[in-house]
């Protein structure tokens, strides 16, 4: 759904003050051990919003020590009723609802996200996710097992302990709740590292966590550059798994990048397919890991699909995402902006047909024109590399077998879309695609009840749904010798 079709939303706040810029440990705010700070910018204006304390190894050690202390056997957190954990998480959701306008304004200013999308989609998703996780808190159950012999055997699902959680910059608040919600619901403690580009809403959450009294040390937050931001998400994921292997073989769950195929068959509802494919790649300036960034369109409808897609892309109004009527904001920072422009230039040089856009926009801020390429081939950089920008590349296919092979010919496997009115074709193709999520006649439909994650280099493990809680528990088998078993 386009932002113009959304229900009315309130006006964003003006003269917003950023009160929380320090490191959050032991339910208190701390300066960094080194005394260093780093600037946080508004990508629409390039103006500095504030400075945030920069965490380093010493700060991480303090946070981990506090989180371990909170997880000790006999601690208030470990002895708390599971239902009480759920009550506290619901109370935190209440506070997010209370501060919804403030958080949405902050998300738009810090991340360049359209205010209407931040208010309706991101904050709405945060509240629903946290309430969903709260409901699971007293439903994490074990099983009894009919073991051979005179034994009584049962399993326990126990929390894994201290969880280190790294938050991306494209959905900073929503991903924060995706991480801490299931972790705390299962009884773990967490040390959170918000993205250095977008730490402000996560830090505000520290004040809400303190207000809830979510027991002193359960959530610690450290902003700073603890990972190599110059690498892709898959590159950072490799570094994290390598570090885990070299240290103590800690469990790692990763949701990484994508180059997701979206396949439009000739029998599809064309209006529906054009709009969903468009939103699938242009939503939040293309800065989505699930972006429908490899669009395959059947040959007989290709020219008409391209024409309609270009017409749709040309409707955008670029500008400050806090301004009413604006439908596209800036990219997150200069580094991403330059990377996207470089990939657009590669498309031009490698022979793709530039249908619209193709360059920067405006004199201030990291804005890029909505760009559509046709006549794209699978070997072009724009067809292989994750662009993370407002760039749609449309490729042509002739047969079902051909498009399945081409769709799967990637290192990634996060998501996919299929548009067809043939149910047999929809089931056949969705089964064949190597993707963690497949949408049929829709795209980017994500809900707290549904597991989310990727195949191949798009990651390991799942978030959300019942499957998401498995990442945060260890299964323990307990076997007791008894005198006689009765069935």
TrEMBL record:
Reactions this protein catalyses: hexanal + NAD(+) + H2O = hexanoate + NADH + 2 H(+); 13-cis-retinal + NAD(+) + H2O = 13-cis-retinoate + NADH + 2 H(+); an aldehyde + NAD(+) + H2O = a carboxylate + NADH + 2 H(+); 4-aminobutanal + NAD(+) + H2O = 4-aminobutanoate + NADH + 2 H(+)
Domain of life: Eukaryota
All copies of domain Aldehyde dehydrogenase, residue ranges: 29-478
GO molecular function, one term: aminobutyraldehyde dehydrogenase (NAD+) activity
Key words, A-Z: Cell projection, NAD, Oxidoreductase
Statement: the UniProt record of this protein carries the keyword Repeat: no
UniProt cross-references to PANTHER family, sorted A to Z: ALDEHYDE DEHYDROGENASE-RELATED
Family membership: Belongs to the aldehyde dehydrogenase family.
Protein name per Swiss-Prot or TrEMBL: Aldehyde dehydrogenase 1A1
Originating species: Capra hircus (Goat)
């Amino acid at each position: 759904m386009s932002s113009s079709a959304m229900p009315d939303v309130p006006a964003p706040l003006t003269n917003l003050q950023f009160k929380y810029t320090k490191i959050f440990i032991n339910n208190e705010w701390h300066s960094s051990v080194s005394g260093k700070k780093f600037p946080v910018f508004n990508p629409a204006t390039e103006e500095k919003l504030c400075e945030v304390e920069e965490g380093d190894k010493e700060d991480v050690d303090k946070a981990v020590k506090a989180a371990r202390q909170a997880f000790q056997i006999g601690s208030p957190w470990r002895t708390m009723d599971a239902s009480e954990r759920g009550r506290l998480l619901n109370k935190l959701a209440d506070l997010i609802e209370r501060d919804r306008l403030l958080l949405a304004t902050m998300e738009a200013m810090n991340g360049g996200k359209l205010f209407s999308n931040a208010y309706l989609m991101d904050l709405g998703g945060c509240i629903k996710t946290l309430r969903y996780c709260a409901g699971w808190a007293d439903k994490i159950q074990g099983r009894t097992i009919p073991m051979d012999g005179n034994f009584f055997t049962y399993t326990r699902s126990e929390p894994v302990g201290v969880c280190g959680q790294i938050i991306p910059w494209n959905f900073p608040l929503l991903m924060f709740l995706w991480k801490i919600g299931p972790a705390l619901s299962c009884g773990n403690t967490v040390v959170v590292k918000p993205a250095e580009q977008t730490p402000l809403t996560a830090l505000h959450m520290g004040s809400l966590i303190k207000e809830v009294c979510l027991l002193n040390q359960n959530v610690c937050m450290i902003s700073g550059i603890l990972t190599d931001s110059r690498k892709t998400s898959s590159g950072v994921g490799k570094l994290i798994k390598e570090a885990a292997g070299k240290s103590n073989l800690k469990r790692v769950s990763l949701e990484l990048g994508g180059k997701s195929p979206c396949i439009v068959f000739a029998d599809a509802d064309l209006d529906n397919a054009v709009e969903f494919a468009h939103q699938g790649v242009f939503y939040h300036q293309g800065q989505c890991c699930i972006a429908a960034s490899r669009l395959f369109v059947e040959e007989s409808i290709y020219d008409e699909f391209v024409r309609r897609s270009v017409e749709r892309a040309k409707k955008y109004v670029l500008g400050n995402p806090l301004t009413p009527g604006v439908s596209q904001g800036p990219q997150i920072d200069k580094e991403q902006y330059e990377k996207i422009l470089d990939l657009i230039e590669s498309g031009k040089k490698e022979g793709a047909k530039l249908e619209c856009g193709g360059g920067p926009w405006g004199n201030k801020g990291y804005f890029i024109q909505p760009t559509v390429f046709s006549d794209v081939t699978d070997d072009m950089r724009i067809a292989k590399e994750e662009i993370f920008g407002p760039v749609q590349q449309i490729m042509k296919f002739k047969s079902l077998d051909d498009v399945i092979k081409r769709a799967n010919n990637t290192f990634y496997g996060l998501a996919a879309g299929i548009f067809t009115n043939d149910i047999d074709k929809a089931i056949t193709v969705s089964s064949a695609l190597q993707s963690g999520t497949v949408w049929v006649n829709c795209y980017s439909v994500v809900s707290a009840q549904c597991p989310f994650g990727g195949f191949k280099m798009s990651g390991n493990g799942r978030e959300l749904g019942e499957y998401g809680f498995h990442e945060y528990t260890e299964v323990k088998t307990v076997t007791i010798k008894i005198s006689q078993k009765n069935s």
